[in-house]
C-alpha cells in the first residue's frame, strides 16, 4: 500500500463516501441469523426502512446489488413476453431495458435526447393508444445517474391515471433514495427499486423493492419463473424479522445505523441539503462556462450534476488528472455521453466544506489540464453557500 | 444494548465467527468500482480465490447469498424443463431441489435416510438407465449442513464417468469450501457453488460459481432467461478486474484478507485443523452417550457435527438454555431432524481452546437441562486434542 | 503476519481482553479537546467513573499507565523525606516501594511471605508505635497482581482508626477496580490508584486517582515538586469537562463505553461473576493437585489465581508451550515466585465458556508438557459452573 | 448522538485528523506486553521512530501527553534549582517555563513579541555572559503552536557553539515532528520532546524524548527525583523491545502504522507537502486582507497559520459560527493573542482538497459573520495549488 495523505474524495454518483458510524456498525461480529438478536435487528430495519421510501407497505431487502433489485421488480410482477413501457432517459434506463429483454419480456423503449426526464405526456399518449392493455408495466428511472436528470414521478402517475390504464408503475430510485424527495405511497408507485450504496450511505450489497398492494396482487399471477427474488418467500419470514436464506447481516447492521442517521438529521433536512449542494454545484459549472446535461430546471438532479465539456476537451483525461493530482474520483460520461461529459456526485454523507473541496478539485483540474474555462466556479458556489438566503432556503424546504 | 460479558460463541454451522482481520479489512471506505484501485483489488481476489476451489478456471463472484449462487449454477447451464438429478442428503439438498422446480426445471430427487451422503452407485445406476440423456445435470451437496454428512465427490465423478453420461456435475460447497478438502478441477466438477460466510470466514453477502470449460460451453446453449446471474456478462469485465454492475466492494476487501489468511495458514493445514476438531467433537459426543447423525465414518463432516438426542429430550429447549445461560448459538435440527437433533459448528476461524469452550457449553447445558448423559465428553475431547498423536496426525495430514 | 486461526486467549492478569464495543468506540476520529463535543465527553466520563470507585468525590484521569497513577498518588500528598508505611504483599507492592524511594520519600516496608495480604493488626501495631506521627501515609495494594491475594481494605481502615493515627490511606486497585468489590468512600480510602487495562476492559494508557477531601487538603501542603501529576491543575478544568493538557481522547471514548457496559451488567453482577469464575478456577487447580499461592480463603483474589507448581516443573516452559500450542498467554511467576508459579487471569470481559477454554488450555498444556498432575480440573470447574447452586450464588451476591 | 452529514474538519493545530489506517491499526486486541508478539512490535517502533527525529540514538516513548514529555526532558537532565534559559515565543513556551518553575528549577525567560522565533543572537549573548556556566540547559520550542512561528534550531545550535557554552539544548517539536523538517542529530539537539497527536497522525497519548549521548550523560548526574519518567529505567527493557511498565499498546499499533505511512510517502515529500499547504494558506490570508502573526518569512510555520483579525472582529465568535455552520474546528488565539487571532492547522493527514475545504470554511465564515474582508482568498490558494510551479516546488523540495 502506498500512502496518499488525506482522505480520498469519492465524488462519483455512488457508491458514496461511507460514514464512520456505518463502517463501525458493520464491523461487529456476524450473529446467528436464526436467533433472537437477529430477529430484533431484522424487525427494526424492515420497519425502519419504510419511511425512507415513503411507504407503510413492506420493503423487501435482498443480498444483491441494485441491479438485482431491478431483476426482482420485473420477475415478480410480469409473465414471459409481457410488454413493459420504458423510457430512454440515459444509460441506466437502457441497461434496465436490456435486462427486461434478456429475461424474456417485451420492453418498448421510448427514445429521448438524454437531456430530459421521462415525458408524462408521452406516457399518457402511449397508454391511451394501448386500448388492449398489452402494456403490463411502465418502468422508469427516477434519477438517471448517467445524466443528472430527475423525472417527475408524481406527474407520471397522473398521466397513467388520466389514461385510465392498469399498468403497474415501476420506479428505479437507486441514485435518489435518501437524497431526493420520494413518496412511494403518495405517488402511487407499485414497485420502487433501490440499492444501499448511494443516499443510504452504505457500501454496495443490498437491493430493495418497496411494493404496493397492487404489485403484490400482480405477483400472485406473474408466471415468470423465480426463486431467489421471490417476494412471497421473503415476506413470510420477514413478518417475524427473519429471512428465508442467509441475509447480509453486517450490511443490515450498517442499514440500521444509516436509518438512525437519516432520522437524526430528518429526511426533510436531508433533501434540502442535497438541493442546496446541487444548486451550488450548478452555479460553479455555469461560472466555469460549461453546460449542464439536464436542460429542464424542473428536472435538475440534487444527487449529481453531469457537465458537458467543450468539443476539444477529453473529460476522461481530465478525470484521470484529477484522480492522480488531487485524489478525487469523478464519474465518467457513459455511452452516448462518453467523451462529452463528466459527472460530479454530491450525495450521501456530505457537507459544505467537502463540496467546496470537490469543486476546488474540479477547478484546479481544469487549470492543470489546460482546459479553456472561466475561473470563479468555486467562488460562485461559496457565495451561494455562504449567503443567508441559501441557508433560509434550506430551512424553508425542511419544514 | 445490554452488555453480556465475554464473547458470544457462534457455533452454528455458519455464518461463522468472523476474525478481526476480516472485519477491519471490511471497514475501509468504499472506493470507485470503476477506478484503478478497484481494478487491482478485483484482479487480486478473482485470481486468489481460484486455488481455494482447486481450480485454474474462472470463479464468478456475485453480490448474493449462497442461495443466489445455487440459482446462478442452474440458470446458466440449463434450459426450461431440463431434468436434473438430485439427491436428498438433507434439508439443503431439498431446498435446492425446490428451487430447481420453481425455476421451471425438472428435478428428480433420489431419496435417502439423511444419515448418508450421495450414493455414487445409485447415481451410476440412474445415469446408465438414462440412455436418452434426458438428465442434463447431476446436482449434489458436498457437505450437507443439516446433517454433517460429506458426500464423496471424487467417487461421484467416477460414477458418472463409468456411466459414460454427459451430464454436468454441479456441487454445492457452501459449508465445506475452505474447511474440507475440495478439488474442483481434479474431481472434474463443472460448477461449484459457494458462499462467503462459512470456511471463508466472511460475513454473508457473496456467492461463488467455479466453472469448468464444459460448464461454460453449456452456458452458451442454455436457454433459461437470465441477466443478474449471467456468467458471460461477468467474465468479460472480470478479465480486467471489474464487474458489470456494482460489486459488494467492502466484502471483497474482506475476501482479499481471508484469502491471505488461508494462504498464511496453508490450505492443507486448514483442512487438517478442521479434521482434528471434528474428531475431538465426535469423541465428546460419543462420551456423552449420543449418536452422531452421520453413519458412515468415511462421510463424517469436518465442518459440523449433528447430534441425535434421546427421544425424551427437546433439543431446541436445550439450545435455548445454552444460548441464555452460556451465550452460545448452536444449530437446530431442521425439517426431518427437527426436534431430534442439534448441530455443532466447528469451522472457520477456530482453535483448540474455542472448541473446548464450545464443548464445555454443550456439556454444561446438558447438565443444567437435566438431560440424561454421561459426563466426560469435554475430557474425551481434551485427551484427544492434547495427545501428541493428534498433533502428529494434523501435521501428517498437512504435508 | 502469520495467521493463527481463532482468537488469542489473553489470560494474563491484565491487560485483559478488550471487548469489541470498546475497540470500536476508540476508533472514532479524534476531536478538538477544547470544543463542545469534548466538553460533553469529558463531563460524562469524569462523572460516570465515580461510582466504579464507590465515590462521590472527584476522580483524576491521567494519560499514563497505572504506574503513573502510583506516582501521582505519592507526589500530590507527600513532601520530600516523608515516611510511608508499605507492606510487601508481592512484586507490585515492592515496585511501588521502590518508586517511593526513588522519588525521595522514606518508605518503610513491612515484609511478608507473599502468600497473605496486608495484616491489619501489624498496621495497627506499627501506627500505635508511631506516636510522633512520622508516618504520613499507609500505602497498600488491594489486589496483589503477582500473587492473587486481595487485602482487606475495610479492616485496614479500621486498624488505622483504632490506632487513632492521621496517616493517609493510599490504595492501589490497578488489578481489582471493576472486578472486585471496592468502596473508596465507605472504606475511608484517601487516594485510590487505578489503571485502564484490567477490570475497565480498556487498552493501557489511562491512570486514575480517586481522592478524598482529606487527600485534597494534604495536597495543599505537600511540598514535593510536581506538575504533570498535579491534581489541582486537573480539577479546575475538569469541572467543566476539560483537561489542562491534551487528554488521551480516544481512550476516553473507550472509557465512556466501558462505563456503559459495567452499568448495563450492573456492578454487583460484575463482582459476582468474577467471584464465581475465581471459585471455578480454584476448583480446577485443586483437582489438578496444585497449591494456590494465596493461603487465606478470605483473601482469595477474584481477578486472578496464582498457581504453585511442583519443584520439578518449569512454569515458564509450561507457559511457552501453552502459548505456542494453544495460543494462550498466562502470567509468569514474578520475582520471589519466579520459576515457582504461573498466574491465570480471569478478569474483565470474560464468560463461562472462555473460562472453560482457558482452563482447558492449562490442562492440555500440563499433559503435553509431561507434568505430573491429576486430570479432571476442567471437569471440576464445569461441575461448579453448571450447578444451579453456583448460579444461585451469583444471583444472590448480585442483589 | 445527532448526525451531522459529512466529516468534521479538525483544523486546529493538533490533535490532527487521524487517518483510517491508524484508527484501524489501533483497534486490534491488546496483547501481552511481556510476550513475543509485543517484543517484535516494541522493537519495530523503537527503531522505526528514530529516523523521524533524524537520530540514530534512542527515542524514549512514554504513555503520556506531550506535556509529560516536557517534564521527562527536564527531570532527567537537571538537578533541583538548576537554571534553564527559555524564550518566550508564545503560549506553549510560557507553559513549559511554568512547569520548570513548579518542578523546582530556575527558568530564565527571555521575552518576545510573540511574532518572532527564538533569536539565536540573544541566546549567544546570554550564554557568553554566563561565564560561570550557571545555565544548565537552553529549552526552546521549535514550532510555537500558539503563533505559527518556527524557530531556527540549527542556528540556535550554532549560537550555543559560538558561545562555547556547555548547556544542553532541549527542543519541543510537539507540533513540528513529522510535519516540518527536523534533524535531532545533525542539529546537535540533546533532548527532543514530541507527542503523538500532530504530525504523527495518532490520537494523543504518547510522549517522546529523543536523547543525545550528552543528555544521557547528564542524566546520570541529574539529581531531580524521578521514577515514571526515568530514561534509564526505560532504556534497559527497550533494548529487547519491552517497557518497564505497561505501555499504551494500542497506540503503539497506531505508531507502527503511522511510521509506515510516513515512510511510504517519504519524509522529504511529507515536509514539502506541508510547506506547500502553508504557502497556499498564507496567500489566502493575505488575499482576505489579514495579517499573519509570524513576521519573519524565514520563520513561517508549515504546520499552522495564526491569523490576526481587525480590532472590531471577535475571532472566537467567528470560530463558533464556523463550527456551528460549517462543522470545522479552528484554533483560538491563546493568552496574549486571545481575542486577536485564530489559528488554522494544516498539518498531518491532509491534502489539497481538504485544504481547499478548510479555507472555504474560513472564507464563508467571514462572510456569514459580517467581517470586513476581501473575497478571493480561496481563489488565491487554488491558483497557487494548481500552478505547475507549486507542484514543481514540491517535487524539488522533495529531492
Automatic annotation (TrEMBL), chains A, B, C, D:
GO terms for molecular function: transaminase activity. The keyword Transport does not apply. The keyword Transferase applies. InterPro entries: Aminotrans_V_dom, PyrdxlP-dep_Trfase, PyrdxlP-dep_Trfase_major, PyrdxlP-dep_Trfase_small, SP_NH2Trfase/AEP_transaminase. Residues 11-319 form the Aminotransferase class V domain. Keywords: Aminotransferase, Pyridoxal phosphate, Transferase. Its cofactor is pyridoxal 5'-phosphate. SUPFAM superfamilies: PLP-dependent transferases. Belongs to the class-V pyridoxal-phosphate-dependent aminotransferase family. This is Pyridoxal-phosphate-dependent aminotransferase family protein. It comes from Salinisphaera aquimarina.
Amino acid at each position: 500500500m502506498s500512502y496518499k495523505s488525506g482522505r480520498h474524495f469519492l465524488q462519483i454518483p455512488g457508491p458514496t463516501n461511507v460514514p464512520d458510524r456505518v463502517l463501525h456498525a458493520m464491523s461487529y461480529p456476524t450473529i446467528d441469523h436464526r436467533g433472537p438478536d437477529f430477529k430484533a435487528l431484522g424487525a427494526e430495519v424492515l420497519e425502519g426502512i419504510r419511511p425512507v421510501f415513503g411507504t407503510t407497505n413492506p420493503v423487501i431487502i435482498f443480498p444483491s446489488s441494485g441491479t438485482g433489485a431491478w431483476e426482482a421488480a420485473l420477475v415478480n410482477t410480469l409473465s414471459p413476453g409481457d410488454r413493459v413501457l420504458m423510457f430512454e432517459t440515459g444509460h441506466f434506463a437502457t441497461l434496465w431495458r436490456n435486462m427486461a429483454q434478456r429475461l424474456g419480456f417485451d420492453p418498448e423503449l421510448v427514445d429521448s435526447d438524454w437531456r430530459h426526464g421521462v415525458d408524462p405526456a408521452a406516457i399518457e399518449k402511449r397508454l391511451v393508444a394501448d386500448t388492449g392493455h398489452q402494456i403490463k408495466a411502465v418502468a422508469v428511472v427516477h434519477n438517471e445517474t448517467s445524466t443528472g436528470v430527475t423525472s417527475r414521478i408524481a406527474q407520471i402517475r397522473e398521466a397513467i391515471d388520466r389514461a385510465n390504464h392498469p399498468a403497474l408503475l415501476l420506479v428505479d430510485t437507486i441514485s435518489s433514495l435518501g437524497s431526493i424527495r420520494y413518496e412511494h405511497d403518495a405517488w402511487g408507485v407499485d414497485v420502487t427499486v433501490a440499492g444501499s450504496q448511494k443516499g443510504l450511505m452504505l457500501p454496495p450489497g443490498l437491493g430493495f423493492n418497496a411494493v404496493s398492494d397492487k404489485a403484490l396482487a400482480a405477483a400472485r399471477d406473474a408466471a415468470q419463473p423465480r426463486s431467489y427474488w421471490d417476494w412471497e418467500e421473503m415476506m413470510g419470514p420477514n413478518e417475524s424479522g427473519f429471512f428465508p436464506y442467509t441475509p447480509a447481516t453486517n450490511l443490515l447492521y450498517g442499514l440500521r445505523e444509516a436509518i438512525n442517521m437519516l432520522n437524526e438529521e430528518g429526511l426533510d433536512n436531508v433533501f434540502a441539503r442535497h438541493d442546496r449542494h446541487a444548486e451550488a454545484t450548478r452555479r460553479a459549472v455555469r461560472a466555469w462556462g460549461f453546460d449542464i446535461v439536464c436542460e429542464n430546471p424542473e428536472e435538475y438532479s440534487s444527487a449529481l450534476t453531469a457537465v458537458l465539456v467543450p468539443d476539444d476537451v477529453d473529460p476522461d483525461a481530465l478525470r484521470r488528472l484529477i484522480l492522480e493530482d488531487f485524489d478525487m474520483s469523478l464519474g465518467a460520461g457513459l455511452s452516448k455521453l462518453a467523451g462529452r461529459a463528466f459527472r460530479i456526485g454530491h450525495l450521501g454523507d456530505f457537507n459544505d466544506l467537502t463540496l467546496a473541496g470537490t469543486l476546488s478539485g474540479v477547478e484546479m483540474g481544469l487549470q492543470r489540464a489546460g482546459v479553456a474555462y472561466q475561473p470563479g466556479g468555486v467562488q460562485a458556489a461559496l457565495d451561494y453557500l455562504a449567503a443567508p438566503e441559501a441557508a433560509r432556503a434550506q430551512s424553508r424546504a425542511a419544514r
